[in-house]
Amino acid sequence: xxxxxxCSTGSELSLEGRGPRRVLLVGNPNVGKSVVFSxxxxxxxxxxxxxxxxxxxxxxRMRLGGEQVPVIDVPGSYSLExxxxxxxxxxxxLRDGGIIVNVxxxxxxxxxxxxxxxxxxxxLPMVVALNLWDEARHRGVHIDLARLSEILGVPVxxxxxxxxxxxxxxxxxxxxxxxxxxxEPLEYEDLWAEVGTIVTEVQQLEHRHHTWRDxxxxxxxxxxxxxxxxxxxxxxxxxxxxLIGESxxxxxxxxxFERLWRPVIEALSSALGGGGxxxxxxxxxxxxxxxxxxxxxxxxxGVLSTGLYVSLGAVMPYVIAFYVVLGVLEDVGxxxxxxxxxxxVMHRLGLHGYAVIPVxxxxxxxxxxxxxxxxxxxxxxxxxxxxxISVGVPCAAxxxxxxxxxxxxxxxxxxLVYGALAVVWFVLGTILRxxxxxxxxxxxLEIPPYRLPSWSTLAKKLWMRLKGYLxxxxxxxxxxxxxxxxxxxxxxxxSIAAAIAPAMRTLFGLPPETALAIVLGFFRxxxxxxxxxxxxxxxxxxxxxxVMLAVTFPCVASxxxxxxxxxxxxxxxxxxxxxxxxLTTGVVMNLVF
Length: 593
Hints:
This protein is of the alpha/beta class. The protein has helices at 33-41, 85-95, 109-120, 133-138, 145-152, 167-179, 191-202, 212-221, 223-271, 277-282, 303-332, 335-341, 343-347, 356-364, 366-371, 379-392, 396-406, 411-435, 455-489, 492-508, 514-520, 525-530, 539-551, 556-566, 568-592; strands at residues 23-26, 46-49, 56-64, 67-73, 99-105, 126-131, 141-143, 156-158, 203-205, 287-289, 292-294.
């Protein structure tokens, strides 16, 4: 059959076409495949990119017949004829063989069976997991499991992965097909006609009345009601992220650094003689805070002081908070609806609606926002999204500082900052779209029903993502802080600030004293904005300086992650865009105000 040709078995398979002893979870996007994966493997999972691609997949292990075997969560696919990088990777994984567990959405059998028949035509050991079985019952969908299994020639098991229903039966079915002869490949001349015949024979629909969940689903997907609903969800998410993040900082990380880590840093400082290059590199320089000369975890620029604090004490709490909120929105089923609602707007920026997820993450912290651009399909989309997040998305710490700085003068000045950032964001996004000649394909996105999240699955997903942040971002942040610390030790920052001070008033209408804050914005934007407070600037000058700081380089933590995600060449291009955007924005705002 042509539909399965790209994944047909070949010389790479062993054991008479059976392939290596491993389990492959295959299915359409948003059918609960990741929840099934978590149930089968527990927490011992790793996430990595498929060799030669930017598409990531999960791998864990499960016990099968007395031995530990790999379990791979294959990227979601609608067909074995690839139309995107994720489907190409799915085919490449399947070519290496294994035991297929085809996870099917029982509430939408007809659409899912097309892939099922293509997989069945490969002749590999296979089990069909009819997931969302409880949701199917709720919707009045009845499926004859025995007849479906007879038609397909493979075991069919009803599961509800969130509650765990049917998972023991699924494991037993996997063990049985692992030890049974591989089924004969099937041939279907007319795939969709065959799908229709099967659905007619095995499925019955029962009329039922709308429930409150149906009403909420309809409200949240229609533009007239969905956009206000989405705004409320985003505002509530931001509030939750800020509450969780600031609570972790106030009650966990700050006390731990002050009570446990400060004595270690001070002892190390004394051992190193309180000064010198090695001291400044590891511990940092002493600064005066509230009239007291001390090592400051935010400003001292030491790898073991500022480096660890920025990564673990200041950024990680917001990473945890955002991943908790993101996990809830994912598992409830709201994010695909938000992506569909915003797809038209995001297309004007050269992005799909799904790019709203990295953008939302960026409002908590640019680091996880930039890391989340991996969910986008093409390098072009990832570059545009990462650049826009770095330029026009203020992190939670920066937003808090802007609010503290400008709110006493009136909320209109805070609104001016956000309005200016929005204009910069859309203008720059439009320019990036127009200057990019790559084709942007239409977004094909599954809209799952609303479901209650599984807290155990949320916890596993949070740990997996947090582990990824600690392994990917933290080392780069420490290296970045080390570089900044060396540069600071040489006095380069002050020299740069002195050099650009004359241009501050001429081009941007700002006093020369703001030059050092603008330069130090490369390290921490929020702290740089805080340095404007003692300068007694008028409100409009504070607005200009705040916007310029927001659209210049991201903080060192974000910048180093940007370097890792985009590579040196594209990061250099993004840097040039940031510099040009900041200078242009400063000049235009000076003329307007």
